[in-house]
């Protein structure tokens, strides 16, 4: 009995000590989320647009201009797990890398450099997640406006540094050089209208 009582007292003492250490650790560990700051990232959007000219656009406008405007507009629908957050897109349509025969019948290739600005807890992983969120908003906008794209052909996005690596540009300088070179081939551009004021270019 004496041994049992001693063992019980030792067990209680161990539990109390462990609990105190855990409580102390909880007080010293910073469990707050990283602070959200305004930042930007960029990706290449590979897409398909109809061959037939849209009847709803102005006579002087092009399908590339409509494509750019739709993508820019989609920034107001950026969200993650059903929770929207403010974003701003700057869209530069560039010549697509795909060959005409790569597109399904009735469609043709289109591509755009998309800059994304948002107030987020930025790190490398968050930058990739923001690209995913932005791509989904753009994809959904294009799909709603131009339905009927065959399932085996889909719009796609690639974060800029991954694209640069695929093209043999493995350094930050190389990635920026590629971005500058492709920007020089811009066909037309568009920017988000109606985005939250605190993510607009005036704050960059």
Question: Which SSEs are present, and which pair or pack?
Answer:
Layout: H1 2-28, E1 37-50, H2 63-73, E2 79-80, E3 83-84, E4 87-94, E5 107-120, H3 124-145, E6 156-159, H4 160-166, H5 172-183, E7 188-191
Structure at a glance:
The N and C termini lie far apart (about 75 Å). A hairpin with a 2-residue loop joins β2 and β3.
How would you describe what is shown here?
The chain has 204 residues and is α+β, with helices and mostly antiparallel strands. 39% of the residues lie in helices and 24% in strands. The strands form two sheets. It has a five-stranded antiparallel β-sheet, with helices on both faces. Strands 2-3 form a two-stranded antiparallel sheet. A hairpin with a 2-residue loop joins strand 2 and strand 3. It is globular.
Helix content: 25-40%
Q: Rg from C-alpha positions?
A: 25 Å
| Low-pLDDT regions | 1-31
- Mean pLDDT across residues: 87
How far apart are the termini?
74 Å
Beta-strand content = 15-25%
Number of continuous helical runs: 5
C-alpha geometry:
globular
Main beta sheet, described?
5 strands, antiparallel
Instruction: Tell me the series of helices and strands, N- to C-terminal.
Output: HEHEEEEHEHHE
| Secondary structure tally: strands | 7
Supply the helix-strand structural class.
alpha+beta
Strands across the major sheet, in which order? 6-1-5-4-7
